[in-house]
Amino acid sequence: MADQHILIVEDEAEIRELIWYNLTKEGYRVSSASSGEDALRRVAEDPPDLVVLDLMLPGIDGLEVCRKLKRSPGAEAVQIVILTARGEEADIVTGLETGADDYVTKPFSPRVLIARIRAVLRRSSAAAVKEDATIRRHNLVIHPGRHEVLVDGEPVTLTATEFRVLHVLARRPGWVFTRHQIAGAVHGGDYVVTDRSVDVQIVGLRKNLGPAGRLIETVRGVGYRFKE
């Protein structure tokens, strides 16, 4: 933990100091920025493991900071936890679709924020699953090269799209994917998607997986995740 660096991007000094105090007490190395421009500069100089990012910032707002980081070579792997007073469902979906790894609303509990940060860092530090690596989750085995899925050792028939959706979700158990993120990963970023089209694929996938379909969890108002 001592080697894990967290950057706080928050323009309100009291909140910034509260987060700083609690993170340093937990043993993290912490730095801070009070604007979007300052945040981008600091990430370029000393890339953190995770950014706690407010959305309502002077100058470049938090969503644009998130977009720039996810498109920046060397910074795209930085984890981002949005911390904001904007708590409407549409705001949460937009934040996650922009590339944030989690979304916490204000007012917040420092203990809950730290728990969410730990969870994001734990997932990111887990061994990355290569595209062609066999995935074993619960009673399910996915062989990407053979385009084969086994449940309790028995083969399951999936469509090509259902297989790709399952592969995307299972590679990162516990991660919440919005419908647009799922469609982008499966079909490419320019694919035109509706919520309904992704939901139909999920329904078919769950049906074909049988009891193992319960491993694909719905996150109401956001999207889907594979059970951690």
Structure explained in plain terms:
The chain has 228 residues and is an alpha/beta fold. It folds into 2 domains: 5-125, Rossmann fold, CATH 3.40.50.2300; 135-226, Arc Repressor Mutant, subunit A (Orthogonal Bundle), CATH 1.10.10.10. The protein is built from 8 helices and 12 strands. It has helices at residues 13-25, 36-45, 62-71, 89-98, 110-125, 160-171, 179-187, 195-209; strands at 5-9, 29-33, 50-53, 79-84, 102-105, 135-137, 140-143, 148-151, 154-156, 177-178, 216-219, 223-226. It has a 5-stranded parallel sheet, with helices on both faces. The longest helix has 16 residues, at 110-125. The radius of gyration is 19 Å and the shape is elongated.
In short:
The protein is 42% helix and 21% strand.
List keywords for this structure.
228 residues; elongated; alpha/beta; Rossmann fold; Arc Repressor Mutant, subunit A; 2 domains; five-stranded parallel sheet; four-stranded antiparallel sheet; single chain
Category by helix and strand content: alpha/beta
Average pLDDT taken over every residue? 87
> How many helical elements?
8
Strand content: 15-25%
Number of domains: 2
Oligomer description:
single chain
Uncertain residue segments: none
Tally of strands: 12
Distance between the termini: 22 Å
Largest sheet composition: 5 strands, parallel
Strand order of the largest sheet: 2-1-3-4-5
Give the CATH superfamily of the largest domain: Response regulator
- Residues in helix, %: 40-55%
Strand/helix succession: EHEHEHEHEHEEEEHEHHEE
Radius of gyration from CA coordinates: 19 Å
CATH topology of the largest domain: Rossmann fold
